[in-house]
Amino acid sequence: MSEVDENPLTSLQDDVLDELGDDRIGDIARLLGTDETGARQMVGTTVAALSGEAEAVATPHEAPLTGVATLGGFATGGLMAGVLAEEAESVAHAVARRTGLPPDAVSRVVGMVIPVELAVLTKRTARK
Known about the structure:
70% of the residues lie in helices and 0% in strands. The chain has 128 residues and is mainly alpha-helical. Helix 1 packs across helix 2, helix 2 packs across helix 3 (77-99) and helix 2 packs across helix 4. It is globular and about 40 Å long.
């Protein structure tokens, strides 16, 4: 399969999971009281919610990372971090509803995933 044929969301989820690494996936699994497969699924759901690609995850506001790659890179990182901090709670509640996991634990995981997803998007933007 060529890079053009890849599902961009699946690729983004894979890149975020790779960036997190096995150790942090294990940490997330312990935090959520699940196994690594469950942790990976939760991260995938979070990535989808943050990037606006999750029809199954209804977020009350526009997904906070929608179109973030068009911001001219992340020179505005402090501003982006502030916006994401405000939206993280609504994303966490949406993911918790979708997954059935405890909202407090999901909120902590969303807080871990946001900077990783931003790092992945920054790397992708730099390659273009």
